[in-house]
Write a structure and sequence with these properties.
Layout lengths: L2 H6 L4 E4 L5 H12 L3 E6 L3 H14 L3 E5 L5 H15 L4 E4 L14 H29 L2 E6 L12 H21 L3 E8 L12 H9 L9 H12 L10 E4 L3 H4 L3
Parallel strand pairs: 1-2, 1-4, 2-3, 4-5, 5-6, 6-7
Length: 256
Amino acid sequence: MNLEFMFGSKKQVALVTGASRGIGRACALELARLGARVVVNYRQSEEQAYGVVEEIKKMGSEAVAIQADVAQKTECQKLVTEAIKQYQKIDILVNNAALHGEQEITELDDALWQKLITNNLESIYWLSVFVGLKMREAGSGVIVNLSSIAADFPRPANIIYATTKGAIRTLTRGLAVALAPQVRVNAVSPGRIETDMSPMSDEVKRQMVQESNLRKRIGQPEDIAKIVAFLASDESDWINGQTIRVDGGSSVLAKV
């Protein structure tokens, strides 16, 4: 399987949201490593975003950083317009940007609900519509959305977050139908992943996470990025409207 040939030879362009750190950063670097030109979207972390761009350029690939708050419809449109102005097209869209928020059910308020819905769900809808229609006009394209295992195993304090991640799966199927046959849309559902936003410095916590999956290790952003790259490639052409769990087998043990 030669993914580099898939991305590099066609000079494909990938737009990755929330790409300044964590899973988004890993996806941007992996797609660039495989030959794609990458649009690194960020909301606030400008220094980190430009750091990702520099890493990509050192690989010999092309990249540009574009600031946009994808929780806002107008910002989504601006991001797409600027990305196309830079590279004339978008072949791959990775909807990664998201926020996490926790409150007990007795404390839930409209503000948290609206914040997570707009950031985690509406952003994916609008970007997928704006980019997906252009992909359909061009005759091809791939969208990969980031869901979460939290949708399968919600905890009392993360009901809203889990709801948004579950809705992403339904949205993924709907978009796959609406944009077919030219555009494929799939989702990845990560398990517990160690990132700067979710550090596992406590040894007791690390041990617990390791024991909660079949691989007996802690998942890394690169584990997710590799599957995202596969779904973005022609090697996964027969996969559409699906959500792929990437959790080291923790969902089998149901200890997440």
